[in-house]
Amino acid sequence: PKGTMAFSGKYEFESDENYDAFVQKIGLPSDKVEMGRNCKIVTEVVQNGNDFTWTLHFPGGRTTTNTFTVGKEADMETMGGKKFKATVKMEDGKLIAEFPNYRHVSEICGGKLVETSTCSGVVYKRTSKKIA
Q: pLDDT tens digits, residue range 78-93?
Protein backbone atom coordinates (compact mmCIF):
# COMPACT_ATOMS: atom_id res chain seq x y z
CA PRO A 1 0.00 0.00 0.00
CA LYS A 2 1.08 3.56 -0.73
CA GLY A 3 2.68 5.40 2.15
CA THR A 4 3.97 2.29 3.88
CA MET A 5 7.70 2.74 3.97
CA ALA A 6 9.94 0.07 5.40
CA PHE A 7 11.52 1.98 8.26
CA SER A 8 12.56 -1.14 10.19
CA GLY A 9 16.28 -1.56 10.65
CA LYS A 10 19.38 -0.24 12.39
CA TYR A 11 20.97 2.93 11.09
CA GLU A 12 24.29 4.48 12.07
CA PHE A 13 24.93 8.23 12.00
CA GLU A 14 26.75 9.21 8.82
CA SER A 15 26.53 13.00 8.51
CA ASP A 16 24.59 16.05 9.57
CA GLU A 17 24.06 19.65 8.53
CA ASN A 18 23.41 22.76 10.64
CA TYR A 19 23.82 20.98 13.97
CA ASP A 20 25.19 23.93 15.95
CA ALA A 21 22.68 26.47 14.65
CA PHE A 22 19.81 24.08 15.37
CA VAL A 23 20.76 23.05 18.92
CA GLN A 24 21.33 26.72 19.74
CA LYS A 25 17.80 27.52 18.48
CA ILE A 26 16.17 24.77 20.55
CA GLY A 27 18.19 25.75 23.62
CA LEU A 28 20.06 22.47 24.17
CA PRO A 29 22.43 22.74 27.18
CA SER A 30 26.08 23.00 26.13
CA ASP A 31 27.11 19.66 27.68
CA LYS A 32 24.42 17.96 25.59
CA VAL A 33 25.56 19.93 22.52
CA GLU A 34 29.11 18.56 22.80
CA MET A 35 27.80 15.07 23.49
CA GLY A 36 25.67 15.12 20.37
CA ARG A 37 28.19 16.58 17.96
CA ASN A 38 29.22 14.02 15.33
CA CYS A 39 27.86 11.46 17.72
CA LYS A 40 27.76 7.96 16.26
CA ILE A 41 24.15 7.50 17.28
CA VAL A 42 22.61 4.23 16.15
CA THR A 43 18.89 4.52 15.45
CA GLU A 44 16.95 1.29 15.72
CA VAL A 45 13.46 1.22 14.27
CA VAL A 46 10.95 -1.58 14.67
CA GLN A 47 7.86 -1.03 12.53
CA ASN A 48 4.76 -3.19 12.73
CA GLY A 49 2.16 -1.61 10.46
CA ASN A 50 1.42 1.78 12.08
CA ASP A 51 3.13 0.88 15.35
CA PHE A 52 6.70 2.02 15.85
CA THR A 53 9.42 1.57 18.45
CA TRP A 54 12.15 4.13 17.78
CA THR A 55 15.31 3.73 19.87
CA LEU A 56 18.41 5.93 19.84
CA HIS A 57 21.56 4.20 21.09
CA PHE A 58 24.16 6.75 22.22
CA PRO A 59 27.86 5.94 22.66
CA GLY A 60 28.44 4.99 26.29
CA GLY A 61 25.27 2.93 26.55
CA ARG A 62 22.56 5.59 27.02
CA THR A 63 19.36 4.95 25.07
CA THR A 64 16.16 6.88 24.40
CA THR A 65 13.10 4.99 23.18
CA ASN A 66 9.88 6.44 21.78
CA THR A 67 6.98 4.10 21.10
CA PHE A 68 4.10 5.45 19.04
CA THR A 69 1.26 4.61 16.67
CA VAL A 70 0.74 6.78 13.60
CA GLY A 71 -2.26 9.05 14.15
CA LYS A 72 -2.50 8.50 17.92
CA GLU A 73 -1.17 10.72 20.68
CA ALA A 74 1.88 9.22 22.41
CA ASP A 75 4.27 10.10 25.20
CA MET A 76 7.61 11.07 23.68
CA GLU A 77 11.01 12.28 24.79
CA THR A 78 13.26 14.86 23.10
CA MET A 79 17.04 14.69 22.45
CA GLY A 80 17.44 16.76 25.59
CA GLY A 81 15.32 14.37 27.67
CA LYS A 82 12.16 16.50 27.91
CA LYS A 83 8.91 14.55 28.01
CA PHE A 84 5.96 15.68 25.88
CA LYS A 85 2.90 14.39 24.02
CA ALA A 86 2.80 14.23 20.23
CA THR A 87 0.80 12.66 17.45
CA VAL A 88 3.00 11.32 14.68
CA LYS A 89 1.53 11.61 11.20
CA MET A 90 2.43 9.74 8.02
CA GLU A 91 2.43 11.83 4.83
CA ASP A 92 3.80 10.52 1.52
CA GLY A 93 5.76 7.84 3.32
CA LYS A 94 7.34 10.35 5.71
CA LEU A 95 6.83 10.32 9.47
CA ILE A 96 6.11 13.78 10.83
CA ALA A 97 6.18 14.69 14.52
CA GLU A 98 5.66 18.08 16.09
CA PHE A 99 8.12 18.32 18.97
CA PRO A 100 7.62 21.12 21.55
CA ASN A 101 9.82 23.58 19.65
CA TYR A 102 10.57 21.93 16.32
CA ARG A 103 9.08 19.82 13.55
CA HIS A 104 10.74 16.46 12.90
CA VAL A 105 10.41 14.59 9.60
CA SER A 106 11.85 11.10 9.03
CA GLU A 107 12.04 9.32 5.71
CA ILE A 108 13.94 6.54 3.97
CA CYS A 109 15.88 7.81 0.93
CA GLY A 110 17.96 5.38 -1.07
CA GLY A 111 18.13 2.98 1.86
CA LYS A 112 19.27 5.70 4.27
CA LEU A 113 17.35 7.19 7.17
CA VAL A 114 17.10 10.93 6.61
CA GLU A 115 15.78 13.04 9.49
CA THR A 116 15.04 16.73 9.13
CA SER A 117 14.22 18.98 12.08
CA THR A 118 13.05 22.55 11.58
CA CYS A 119 12.96 25.27 14.22
CA SER A 120 12.28 28.95 13.40
CA GLY A 121 13.66 28.57 9.90
CA VAL A 122 16.78 26.61 10.92
CA VAL A 123 16.86 23.20 9.26
CA TYR A 124 18.94 20.42 10.81
CA LYS A 125 19.43 17.35 8.66
CA ARG A 126 20.82 14.04 9.92
CA THR A 127 21.59 11.13 7.61
CA SER A 128 22.18 7.59 8.88
CA LYS A 129 23.27 4.58 6.85
CA LYS A 130 21.61 1.20 7.27
CA ILE A 131 23.81 -1.28 9.12
CA ALA A 132 21.27 -4.06 9.84
A: 766 789 999 999 999 9
Q: From 15, 41, 14, 17, select the one nearest 125 (Cα to Cα).
A: 17
Q: How far apart are CA 4 and CA 83, in angstroms?
A: 28
Domains and CATH numbers, the chain: 9-130 (2.40.128.20)
In 29-71, which ranges are continuous DSSP H helix? 30-36
3-state secondary structure of 24: helix
Beta bridge partners of 30: none
Q: What is the pLDDT of residues 100-123, one digit of tens each?
A: 888 999 999 999 999 999 999 999
Distance separating alpha carbons of residues 132 and 124, to the nearest angstrom: 25
Q: Whole-prediction pTM value?
A: 0.87
The candidate with the shortest Cα–Cα distance to 111, out of 3, 1, 2, 6, is 6
| 3-state SS, residue 108 | strand
Cα 70 from Cα 18, distance rounded (Å): 28
